[in-house]
Each structure stands twice: as C-alpha cells, then as structure tokens.
C-alpha cells in the first residue's frame, strides 16, 4: 500500500473533462425548458438515460459489498481494509468504507421518472426502450466482476457531479416554473426539492461534501500504486462515456415525441 493523494490526482486528471461535460450538459438542459419547449418530455428523456448509470452503479456497489444492514453497524476496526490480505476482501472493505446512504440516487430517480411519466404517459415506451445508458449499466456489471476497485472512480465522479454542479442545474431547472413541472408554487419553493427534480437534492449537501471528501481520502492509502493508476485511467474513460451518452441524446431527441 502507498500513501499518496489520490483525491488531488483525481481532481487534477478530471478538471478539464469535468468542465467540458458540465458545459455540454448545461447546454442540453437549456433545450429542455421554456422557452424552447412547453413540457418536460426532453428532460424526462435525458434523465432516464443518466438514471441507468446510477442504477447500475448503486446496484453493483451494493451487490459487491453486501446488504448494508448486515454490516454497517459493525465496529470499524472489524472491517478495516488495512488488516485484510485477500485483495477481493480488501476492496470490498474499502468500498464499504465509502458507502454513504445519503448519496444514493436510485430511489429519487425512480420517483422522479414515475412523476414525469404520470404527466405524459404516452412517453413511457420511449423512456424505457434500449438506450446508451443501459450499455453503460452493462459495462459497470462487467467492470465490477473483474476490477471492483475501479468503482472508486465512478463513485467520486458521479456523486461529485451532483454535489458540485447539481445546485446550478437544479436552479436552472426550477426557473421553468411550477406549471411546467406540474407542481404548485408552494411545492417548487419548498426547502426540499420535490419530484420530478428530487434527484438534484441532497440534504445538508455541505456536510455531505465534507464527509464524502474525507471518506475518499481515508481509502487512499489502502490502494496499491497500480490500483491508483487504474482508477485515474478509468476516470478519463468515464467522461468519454458520459460525453457519448449526452451526444446520443441529440439523436434520440430528433424522434422523441414532444
């Protein structure tokens, strides 16, 4: 094991691709709200594709670390990765160490998409057809089977995107107004962002950010030098996949009913 600042390396490696994908997605968000459109069908299309990635990540993460109810209350010393010699068990332990229930997005995404479908049920078939997001989900299944430590890159990038860029996107979406989202004025001004935008809301996000950074740092020295590099390499691959997914939405949007 080595003691190096993986978090700093990750931030440096992804700084430019993160900024690029954020700009790319913001430009697409602008096309999903008034005055470009008068209903949230394009937003539903986009979020349904990205939802597949979060479903895949969280499904594979929990499948690999086991049901948190079985281990989350154990003493931390009993599940410390540093005392484990077997590589699989070491990686399982460090991925348990990163587990934060408050970050998980699947439940919010299910609720948001159900709400969006209720607004316009005619779009249900389009939202659930085979798509590029499902391909990434399949990739995550294969990734964990072979190199589960690479989930560290996916965990950091996907949840950082919400914690560090989500507030800006959420504010942009809320400007579309309550009628656009089929909400009341009181609902859209509520402290907790309601469906269909609950995906973008993380309670006490400043506290969660601090804890998340701390946990990423805590597993830093529990990875080998080779694993460090593989995580950095994977982080760049992630942004390529996210860019491909966003660009694929341009083609889907051409035939998506609006």
From TrEMBL:
Gene Ontology MF terms in the entry? heme oxygenase (decyclizing) activity; metal ion binding
Lineage, top-rank taxon, reads Eukaryota
Which keywords describe this protein according to UniProt? Heme, Iron, Metal-binding
Supply one GO BP term: heme oxidation
Q: Which InterPro entries match?
A: Haem_Oase (IPR002051), Haem_Oase-like (IPR016053), Haem_Oase-like_multi-hlx (IPR016084)
- For this entry, the protein name equals Heme oxygenase-like protein
């Amino acid at each position: 094991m080595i003691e190096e600042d993986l978090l700093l390396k990750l931030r440096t490696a992804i700084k430019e691709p993160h900024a690029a994908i954020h700009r790319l997605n913001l430009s697409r968000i602008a096309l999903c709200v008034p005055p470009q459109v008068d209903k949230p069908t394009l937003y539903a299309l986009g979020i349904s594709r990205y939802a597949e990635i979060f479903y895949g990540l969280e499904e594979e993460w929990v499948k690999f670390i086991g049901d948190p109810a079985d281990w989350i209350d154990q003493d931390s010393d009993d599940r410390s990765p540093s005392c484990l010699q077997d590589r699989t068990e070491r990686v399982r332990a460090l991925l348990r160490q990163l587990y934060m229930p408050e970050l998980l997005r699947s439940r919010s995404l299910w609720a948001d998409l159900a709400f969006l479908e209720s607004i316009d049920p005619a779009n249900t078939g389009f939202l659930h057809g085979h798509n590029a997001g499902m391909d990434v989900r399949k990739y995550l299944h294969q990734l964990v089977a072979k190199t589960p430590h690479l989930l560290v890159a996916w965990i950091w990038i996907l949840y950082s995107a919400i914690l560090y860029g989500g507030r800006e996107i959420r504010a942009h979406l809320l400007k579309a107004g309550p009628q656009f989202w089929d909400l009341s004025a009181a609902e859209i001004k509520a402290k907790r962002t309601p469906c269909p935008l609950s995906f973008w809301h993380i309670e006490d996000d400043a506290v969660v950010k601090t804890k998340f950074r701390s946990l990423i740092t805590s597993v830093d020295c529990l990875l080998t030098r080779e694993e460090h590099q593989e995580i950095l390499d994977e982080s760049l691959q992630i942004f390529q996949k996210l860019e491909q997914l966003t660009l694929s939405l341009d083609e889907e949007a051409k035939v998506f009913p609006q």
